């Protein structure tokens, strides 16, 4: 019998690992995939294939210290107006390469701060999208919302666009924590935004929280979770803060000694799991919770949970079209990312080109590993013989991985004729187990976040 605690502790001390919102992770994308592959993959989308669309808005009024997203602060609307004009050009260019008004089953506005767009700009983007694409009547229209950057006119514009789902950034309500992360946001303004989004048609509301923030304590996180519980979102996501100041320069404003240590971090993670479970939420994947009747919880129960660049989703379309600077697209053939710098993206759009700058063409083994990693992230289990054979491999191909998992994970992973299952229900080892099947990790010098 293996002594579980030492193995668990050793695993959690291990090197940081990717979040696996794609396989391979975006740091393995190269310029070998650019506009030519992107155009060919758009041309190859079947006529009857509904696609998902992601629009990236890279602007923010405030630049939160913890945030590692590539965002641009702006106090004026000028760059935003120009950006929306080019976004319209990109929408029509991509639609032209598809060769038809492709059916769209889901549209997601992410950022940055999508709600920084004035109502007239939201209307412009919506008009271009609906003219260039055949947006399904029942399409999911979701928006990431900063409660401090939204008003009645924008809420009305979102409602007119057919908003069905919204995600509100909260992180933590404790003033000391908010002060340290440069993100002042009262409970009142957050509750107001949540209530108004519901009135405007957001049938599903998500709240984003973070554990491991500077000056965050068990008491402050408990208080935040109590407040969130009263708002009764349909979903909550709680992510571990990744302190990588060498990559995210803004994080240099956060003193390292204000951050909870590994043991406190683990305690914060466990508090969030317990409190959300007590409040009636079902765990979904490694960092999401949803009310039992919410589509995400239903998908998790029925083994239909999927993963895309934004995290967990019910969207299973094999094609995701990313628009805007740094936006990521997904095709059965591989992944593509637009130029991350707005200026470079703008030059490509003005020059009549696709703005893709890098990507990755998937081979048979990459596809197989991607599916193994997806199933572990979504189900905490994978039927290796079944997945491997569908991709043309036999179980023996993964013998080294199975041997490593057996040696490293002990009782944390149950192994039955090649079927792997994490024995702990909270998925804290999921990313570490995925890492065992990551064919790129050994070659990577990227510093990822801690698994918990
Ligand atoms: S957390 Fe949101 S508002 Fe803050 S900098 Fe990041 S994208 Fe902008």
From TrEMBL:
Keywords: 4Fe-4S, Cytoplasm, Iron, Iron-sulfur, Metal-binding, Oxidoreductase, Porphyrin biosynthesis, S-adenosyl-L-methionine. Transmembrane segments: none annotated. It comes from the Bacteria. It catalyses: coproporphyrinogen III + 2 S-adenosyl-L-methionine = protoporphyrinogen IX + 2 5'-deoxyadenosine + 2 L-methionine + 2 CO2. Residues 45-282 form the Radical SAM core domain. SMART domains: Elp3. Its cofactor is [4Fe-4S] cluster. One of its GO terms (cellular component) is cytoplasm. It is found in: Cytoplasm. [4Fe-4S] cluster binds at residues 60, 64, 67. Binds 1 [4Fe-4S] cluster. The cluster is coordinated with 3 cysteines and an exchangeable S-adenosyl-L-methionine. Its EC number is 1.3.98.3. Involved in the heme biosynthesis. Catalyzes the anaerobic oxidative decarboxylation of propionate groups of rings A and B of coproporphyrinogen III to yield the vinyl groups in protoporphyrinogen IX. This is Coproporphyrinogen-III oxidase.
